[in-house]
Amino acid sequence: MNAYDTGVLILRVCLGLTMAAHGYNKFFAGGRIPGTAGWFDSIGMRPGLVHARLAASAELGAGIALALGLFTPLAAAAFVALMLVAGWTVHRGNGFLIVKNGWEYNLVLAVGAVAVATLGPGRISIDDLLVGAERIDGWWGFGIAVVLGPAAGVGQLLLFYRPPAPERS
């Protein structure tokens, strides 16, 4: 084990478990799936129940996959899609900084995942155990994350995002 593999492992686990915690929270804390579904409906991601289940599953699954270094470029693409949708639907009107509920956090998670897809999961990963040096990383990992991720996020927004009309004063 070298410093590179250790650094990538630390980054993967931090990003992955952070994302997985969001999915876990949607399933098992607060309002759970019904509460999350109501919230999704209220922001215009309809049908809310479908999107609550999909978002929770994608966050939990992609987070665990990235943490383990399993299908790393695909997990990173899921991060990008999830954070693009969250940034657009919830945070974009609030500016950049997270202290004002802006999209800073979404950007950091997405870019961190793209960096991992580009660098590769390292030798301390399931991808390395399964395929070794034949794993997909470098420009291919980068390309998968930055093409598939935004395509999935934009596709979801185009198909399902119907924001409520602004209230008239």
Tell me the layout of helices and strands:
Layout: H1 3-28, H2 32-43, H3 48-68, H4 72-91, H5 104-119, H6 126-131, H7 138-160
Helix pairs in contact: 1-2, 1-3, 1-5, 2-3, 3-4, 4-5, 4-7, 5-7
Which percent bin holds the helix content?
over 70%
| Oligomer category | single chain
- Secondary-structure element series: HHHHHHH
Alpha carbon gap, first and last residue: 62 Å
Q: Extract low-pLDDT stretches.
A: none
Shape: elongated
Largest sheet: none
Alpha-beta content class: mainly alpha
Strand tally is 0
Radius of gyration of CA atoms, rounded to a whole number: 17 Å
Number of helices: 7
Strand percentage: under 5%
Mean pLDDT: 95
Write structural notes for this entry.
With 169 residues, the protein is mainly alpha-helical. Helices cover 73% and strands 0% of the residues. The chain contains seven helices and no strands. It has helices spanning 3-28, 32-43, 48-68, 72-91, 104-119, 126-131, 138-160. The longest helix has 26 residues, at 3-28. The N and C termini lie far apart (62 Å). 38% of the residues are buried. The mean pLDDT is 95.
Brief summary of the model shown:
This protein is mainly α and 169 residues long. Helix content is 73%, strand content 0%.
Question: Any key phrases for this structure?
Answer:
169 residues; mainly alpha; single chain; 0% strand; 7 helices
